[in-house]
Amino acid sequence: MIETAAIITLYIFFPISFFVWLYGLYDAYTEADKINKGQVPAGPEPTMQDALVYAGVFIGLLVGFFIIFFIIGFFFGLLML
Question: Membrane-spanning residues where (predicted)?
Answer without folding.
Answer: 7-26, 51-79
